[in-house]
Each structure stands twice: as structure tokens, then as C-alpha cells.
């Protein structure tokens, strides 16, 4: 039993080290608040943790016996580690492809833009026409303004594409403008929390309690929905609409 427990402990330790390095790098680079919540990354993380911290070490505990030939034991543990690495690679790739690259203000709401949301052709155009805001593999999340173009035909084309489930303006970085340029328009679109349509009455009640606890007014035009993959947040702005005072969860 002592041999098995030592094998379990070593396997668990090194699995935790590798998983911490991978998830820590992704978190510090791309998934810091509010990215982790908006991207709904928790299910992928739980699967990774389950395979790397529970299944792998447990299987090692089961197969490890001091009486087993060293070559056979090494082969069995290597097989378990290979399966772990395959699961870790798949999960890491999924998180990488879904990493936040922009937080965009567009058409009255804030929206998360993940790597797989960006149209590759438009990204290539952005690197030619809008290099400052173009995405690169190393790009960390940036706050930007994504207005629809003023040209009526282009405006209608993008709207039709979005309504049909295709690419929206937030997928077209060659059209992006700086966050600061969008602040006057954003300020005009702020609403009272009661007027926001993305939250249920129960969620608004929770949000009001959290706003009050943070010393934020609940009866002013200072709020905007912050839309994620499956979960939404509330962004509360200062009275001038120039900066975000708080980002609050409705649950």
C-alpha cells in the first residue's frame, strides 16, 4: 500500500504542476476577469481537472504494485500519462481557440469577442488596413469600438450576415476603432438597469443589491449589458460614461 500511495502522490503532484502551468498561463494572458466568466470556460477546466487530477492518478494507484516488473509498470504509467497529455492538449487547444481577444462596444451593448469569432479573411485585411487593432496570435484582450460602417450597402450586408448566423461587425477587425472614439456613442446608449432587456427580474434584483453594496446608483442611466458566450454581466459606468466603475455578475 505504501508503494501505491507514493506512486499516487507523485503522479498527482506532477499532474497538478503541469495543469497549473497551462491554466495559469492562459488565465494570466487571456482569461482574467471578466474573460473566464464570459467565455464560459469552467466546463472545459473541470474536465481537464477531472482527467489530470482524478482519473490519471487514480489509475496509477490501481495499477502500481511493488511486485510488478519495472518495465511493465513503466509501460502502464506511460500509457496513462499519454492519455492525460492527449486530454490536456485537446482541452488546451479548445481554451486557446476560445480565448478572449477583444471586449467590443457595438450597437448598444458590450460583447466578448473570442479568437474563433474573428473572420480570418477580415483579420488578414486588418493587418493590412488597421494594423494597430489587428489580431495576432499573441494578442491579449483589448477594449475596442466596433461600429457598423456608414456606407448603406456595407451596413446592410453585415446586418443580413449577422441575422443569418454569419459574421457580425465584431468579427471584422479592419472596421474596429479605438475604445476612446466610441465613448461618446456609448454614453448615449447607457440605460437604467430596469430598462435592460438581457436580464430577468430576479437577476436585476441581484444586480441592484450588488450595485448598492458597491455604492453605485440604481436609478441612473449608467448601465450596459456585457454579453458573453452563454452568460452575461452588467457593466456600470461612471456618471460621465468615460470608464467602467464595476462589472457585476447577475447570479
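Q: What amino acid sequence fits the structure above?
A:
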Amino acid at each position: 500500500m505504501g508503494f501505491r500511495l507514493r506512486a499516487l502522490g507523485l503522479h498527482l503532484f506532477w499532474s497538478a504542476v503541469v495543469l497549473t502551468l497551462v491554466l495559469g498561463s492562459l488565465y494570466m494572458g487571456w482569461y482574467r476577469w471578466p474573460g473566464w466568466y464570459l467565455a464560459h470556460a469552467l466546463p472545459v477546466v473541470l474536465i481537464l481537472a477531472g482527467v489530470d487530477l482524478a482519473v490519471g492518478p487514480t489509475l496509477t494507484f490501481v495499477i502500481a504494485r511493488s511486485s510488478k516488473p519495472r518495465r511493465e509498470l513503466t509501460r502502464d504509467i506511460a500509457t496513462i500519462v499519454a492519455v492525460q497529455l492527449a486530454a490536456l492538449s485537446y482541452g488546451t487547444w479548445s481554451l486557446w481557440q476560445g480565448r478572449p481577444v477583444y471586449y467590443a462596444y457595438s450597437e448598444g451593448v458590450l460583447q466578448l469577442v473570442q479568437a474563433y469569432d474573428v473572420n480570418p479573411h477580415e483579420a488578414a485585411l486588418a493587418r493590412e488596413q488597421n494594423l494597430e487593432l489587428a489580431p495576432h496570435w499573441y494578442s491579449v484582450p483589448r477594449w475596442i469600438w466596433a461600429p457598423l460602417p456608414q456606407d448603406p450597402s456595407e451596413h446592410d450586408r453585415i446586418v443580413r450576415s449577422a441575422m443569418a448566423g454569419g459574421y457580425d461587425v465584431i468579427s471584422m477587425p479592419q472596421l474596429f476603432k479605438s475604445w476612446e472614439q466610441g465613448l461618446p456613442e456609448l454614453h448615449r446608449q447607457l440605460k437604467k438597469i430596469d430598462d435592460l432587456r438581457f436580464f430577468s427580474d430576479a437577476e436585476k434584483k441581484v444586480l441592484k443589491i450588488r450595485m448598492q453594496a458597491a455604492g453605485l446608483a440604481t436609478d441612473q442611466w449608467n448601465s450596459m449589458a456585457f454579453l458573453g458566450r452563454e452568460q452575461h454581466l452588467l457593466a456600470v459606468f461612471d456618471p460621465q460614461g468615460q470608464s467602467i466603475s464595476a462589472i457585476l455578475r447577475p447570479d
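Q: And what stands out in the fold?
A: DSSP finds eight helices and seven strands in the chain.
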